[in-house]
Amino acid sequence: MIVSDAPPNPLDVIRERYDALSAAERKVADYVLEHAADVAPAPISDTAHSAGVSEATVVRFCRSLGYKGYLEFKFGLAYNLSDPVQALHDEIREGDTTAEIARKTITSGITALQHTLNMLDYNALAQAVDAVSNARQTLIIGVGTSVPFAIDLYNKLMRLDLNCQAITDPYLQLMKIALLDERDVVIALSHTGASIDPVNALRRAREKGAQAIAITGSAFSPLTQQADIVLLYGVRETRLEAVIARLALLAVSDALYMALAMQNIEQTNRNEKNIWQLVLDKVTGI
To answer: Would the pTM of this model clear 0.70, i.e. be above it?
Structure first.
């Protein structure tokens, strides 16, 4: 493990240890040295795909350099490619005024939404709408920072009177999946698409015959490999937890909800009226 207040520059480490790397690891090294700016924001699946190696090779490469894994390596790369403030946000700089911070943050959000608009597969979205609307039940899963978005999607679909459930505990996810069949749908949300639990859950769901839908920011990820339908959003940030990714993910989630809602707008409006009547009664104490 590399321990330092300021992470050493991974590019320097690569050059120092290049000769000690295996042939496969050198393919990763060559790609990183030539495309460092692209690697910094990329999930491991994208780097492996671009370098022409497996994800396991990328992990071995990182460990050969002295890092615990890809995330620590990528953090060091991002840190040394930019000033430390960019560990929080790609565009913001130390000394920016509050107005500049707000403008850059909002502009980044607009850019991410535009990228999502351009790259979202609308045929895949239509397939997802059809799958969810015809499912006996829909299971929504997410872990870690994806938990709030899984719950948010449940809140949307529940309003349509769809039989759905959000489960964020990995063990409970598997227990529920064990009871699914070809009549059911599982939606997994993961920004990197590399988290073990959602990947395993989708794999198990497909084994049970359920349709698997992935909502992710990584096209070449283990999660997409396990999905029947992929809803991809576009975000490129160097930090490990992309701030703007939340907006893009919510946009795709909202698009799925609205497309489902518009299938029967009269029923949707009745549902909303009934929901808000009870909510207002509770708020007003009537």
So the answer is: yes
